[in-house]
# Entry
Amino acid sequence: MKIKLSALCILLSVCGAKSQSVPAFADGERIVFVGNSITCGGHYHSYIWLYYMTHFPDRRISIYNEGIGGDVANMMYLRLDKVFEHQPTLVTLSFGMNDVGYMDYTQPENGAIGSKNVAVACEDYQKIETELKKYPTINKVLIGSSPYDESARFNQTPFPGKNRLIEQIADFLQQRAKINKWHFLDFNRPMMAINQREQQADSTYTLCGADRIHPTTDGHLVMAYLFLKAQGLTGKPVADILIDASGRIVKRADNCRITDLSVSAKDIRFTYLAKALPYPIDYSHYENEKHTQADALKVIPFMDEVNCEGLAVTGLSDGYYLLKIENEPIARLTAGELKRGINLASYANTPQNKQAEQIRELNERRWLIERQIREYYWIEYNLMRKTNMLWACNEAAVDTLQKYRAIDPFVNWTADYWLRYMHKRVREDSEKEQQSLVETIYRLNKPQALKVELVKLD
# Structure
């Protein structure tokens, strides 16, 4: 089944053509995503893992969230010890959103302040680079931050000029990646290209959330798509089937096996065993977000390029056909539609999509537990470090927490997580629960042989 290259795909290719490459993950890889709140509370790395869980069910990898809200480059440098505790084979690093500043932009001399902030961030990065160089066997991927959207027109833009400085840090990271022969990926410019394109029809459109900073759920799927695209994984089908009914032969069976083909005047039957599952798209709203993950499908060719489970049948007589899988009705299709080909991944009621949905739900539970424990680490790095109580987790630390909770809204928002996870046993149980979910996922993510029928309707 041929995939048409959309105008948007061309746009993304042009905007993202700056030497962007990320090695595809091999079996046994341990990947750590280092970043700020966009990584800490965001979904993009979880969506990337979900792609591998479904598309490569026998390729076991591990992905770790090392994001901390509010972090700048220097703060990431100070916590690199925890990154290396994961014994990673690949580390990604993204910063810039917080580094360039916020309230600085309300001052008359904001241009000079912003340039100074960029210089400080780039200088602090050099300390990170020095540490990363001590691990030559680890692959390194430097990522240009997702954008601060200044062009959406849903309210006044608080910090004009902020994204230009974030782009400067992205360009610096690209340069450092080239010098070190590391890998680079830019989220910023491709996402802004989508924002500005969509804003021509809807001036309030953004992938970057109500605060213009934190990507919404669909924004995170766009980020995952850009990452997978940089890994060279677009155009890799879940499966691709072409059957010639008149010749009663299977002409194509990519990434799958077709057996027991039977063709009659009334129906076509065969057994279908894919090597992958479709990626389960989430159509539900997360918390109070206006956008859903599925909204991303309107602005990126995800289903065509990343999630194509193609079925085409030629040589059928005109009329309507009922597609059934495992004796369950899936869709009513014309001979013309089947000749052109359909994407089975777009039908949520197929057995394989239902199986993949179980994987998504388990992975979402894993992600939520991981995200919550990141708030414990936020308190440690942002409060306990500066009060000389890092990792103390004792009564004095509790007293310190309560003191600052009364005066610092950020501490107050995350205090309950710290109180829960301050106990080592609770943290260990959380890690065991995450691992148990991963074990369950890799036990349940194996594709099953399916009986497929196309029954001609009167």
